Amino acid sequence: MAEAKPEPEPQARLQNDAGAAFVLESKGQWWHAGFHLTTAIVGPTILQLPYTFRGLGWVVGFLCLTVMGIVTFYSYFLMSKVLDYCERDGRRHIRFRELAADVLGSGWMFYFVILIQTAINTGIGIGAILLAGQCLQIMYDQLSPNGSLKLYHFIAMVTVVMIVLSQLPTFHSLRHINFASLLLSFGYTFLAAGACIHAGHLKNAPPKDYSLESSKSERVFSAFTAIAIIASIFGNGILPEIQATLAPPATGKMVKGLLMCYTVIIITFYTAAVSGYWAFGNKSDTIILTSLMPDEGPALAPTWAIGLAVIFVLLQLLAIDL
Questions:
Q1: Which residues, in sequence order, are bridge partners of residue 28?
Q2: Which residues, in sequence order, are bridge partners of residue 246?
Q3: Three-state SS across the chain?
Q4: CA separation (Å) from 294 to 95, 155, 196, 205?
Q5: Residues with Cβ < 8 Å from 167, sequence gap 6 or more?
Q6: Percent of the chain with pLDDT over 70
Q7: Tens digits of residue pLDDT in 245-255
Q8: 6-10, 259-263, 266-270, 272-276: which range is least confident on average?
């Protein structure tokens, strides 16, 4: 009877695993973890926060944003500690699915997490490409109102750029791109906030009405929509993959990266939410930049500021989609 082939060593399995090879260049410092985590969480979706306040109002909006921040920070903190514990015990986990299978003690959790994470990553990837294509189209329409290029042309252009950028060999090699992404998030947040403050002081500024919908069913629907948007914004941190890029010993470094990330979150999230909702109230659009460009009449902010914010959003979307 033929001898059973021995199981490959864990290290050999990792070497033959393309996903592990991408993550496991463990040379990063805590600030690199902060760059990666900030790019994963702080994206152009924060420009939807005035719209979430439209469905919740000032008090409940602030409460939901603050509570979600505290809950997710603590969750990421606990996950970091669990990863540290597992690594000290000789079980290093570099992906959510492996951590879930180990901690929950059931093989089916491995495949369940693969399903959920694949669905989320697919949605983020497609959404980022579509939004980047729309940003290109906005700039093109401003420069050439009668141009012949359509949205699908710009989506194809963005896709080609993403294919090229995806050839970067390791997660650690993205640290410079993700640092630029962090700066871009400050850029479009402050541009959008400044534009909203400018719009709010114009003579033809929209009336500031902060009342909720009159219908109870509409209020409930808007509230749940707003809470779902806030939850989805906070829930994209790929912490196991990021922590695996840290140079050993990794203990304590991820916590510093988390603190850096949530400092950026506090500054950008509240700035975008407060300025946009203050300026437009319950007339806030899904993305605050579109509120600044009404269908009728001139733009409510300098065209250069809106255009530069759109460029910053486009550039950050390329980083997020990696």
A1: 246
A2: 28
A3: CCCCCCCCCHHHHHHCCHHHHHHCCCCECHHHHHHHHHHHHCCHHHHHHHHHHHHHHHHHHHHHHHHHHHHHHHHHHHHHHHHHHHHHCCCCCCCHHHHHHHHHCCHHHHHHHHHHHHHHHHHHHHHHHHHHHHHHHHHHHHHCCCCCCCHHHHHHHHHHHHHHHCCCCCCHHHHHHHHHHHHHHHHHHHHHHHHHHHHHCCCCCCCCCCCCCCCHHHHHHHHHHHHHHHHHHHCCCCHHHHHCCECCCCCCHHHHHHHHHHHHHHHHHHHHHHHHHHHHHHHCCCCHHHHCCCCCCCCCCCHHHHHHHHHHHHHHHHHHHC
A4: 44, 24, 13, 11
A5: none
A6: 86
A7: 777 776 678 88
A8: 6-10
> Which single residue is written with the structure tokens 């909006």?
61
pLDDT higher than threshold 60 for residue 238: yes
Six token digits for residue 10: 């864990």
